[in-house]
Amino acid sequence: MRKLYAKRFVQGFCIVVLLLAILKEAVPGVAYTKEQRIQAREEKQLAKQRARSARGENKQEKENETAVEATSKPTASAKKSKERNNKETAVETPFTPHRIYSVPGYDRCFADNNDVQLASAMSFGVEPIADRVEAERRKDELVYIGSCPYVAVEEARSSIPYLVPRASKLLQDVGKNFFDSLQIKGIPLHKLIVTSVLRTRDDIEKLQRHNGNAVPNSCHQYATTFDISYNRYKTVAPPGDERRAVRNDTLKWVLSEVLYDLKKQERCFVKHEKKQGCFHITVR
């Protein structure tokens, strides 16, 4: 009888333990202490808050993406406006030539006589050269200007195509500025013609025999001075191309503007030579 009671007690104890285990699995908090239940409740609330926050962030990101897509897609009116602007910019603006102003007066603007130019020539030039033989020996001091792309150097018996570097740079700038001015004024390109450059003492003596304007102490002997014709120019045109005829007076007006600008920049002295038909120019 006792054995039967012991057996039933063990069976009942096992059943109770099993039921408690099932209850604990189904309701974990039933076995928690008061502090553990409070902690578990707080953790559960925190998890819910995190979940709500994550859902809110995802929603905001989607709204932002939608707004960006909406702004990136141009409206129909914006598309039409853009197309109209592209068409307007595609139309070439017609070329408007700049006006030709010339100078207030050749004699007034270009009145630098020989004494003024001579002082500059002696400061920046070489020692006067006796003759062509000595000129060959002293070429290292000079720059050959016969190949300048903006000017045509005329062959002359009374001078040789050499200048000091400072004067050579001035001549190139005169030619380049003249080209630029012709282009912006809508005038066909013409090269300037250089009629006189470096003169030896021997050249000056020979020139004085038939030219009353030639002076013994000429600025040309210092390789700082050159003469540019204002009534003759060389037309620049591709082979077989006919260029519009331009009056020499028009070209002289443009050249005078170029020289006057350089004179105001204090880069040169200029004399308007009436008898020789040229601008007598010395670097400074």
Structure commentary:
There is one protein chain. By secondary structure, the protein is α+β, with helices and mostly antiparallel strands. Helices cover 51% and strands 13% of the residues. The chain has 9 helices and 7 strands, in the order H-H-H-H-H-H-E-E-E-H-E-H-E-H-E-E. The protein has helices at 2-26, 34-72, 76-90, 106-109, 114-124, 132-137, 165-184, 201-208, 248-264; strands spanning 143-144, 151-153, 162-163, 190-196, 225-235, 268-273, 278-283. The strands form 2 sheets. A 5-stranded mixed beta sheet has the order 2-4-5-7-6. A two-stranded antiparallel ribbon has the order 1-3. Helix 7 crosses helix 9. It is rod-shaped. The protein starts with a helix and ends with a strand. The model has no long low-confidence stretch (mean pLDDT 82).
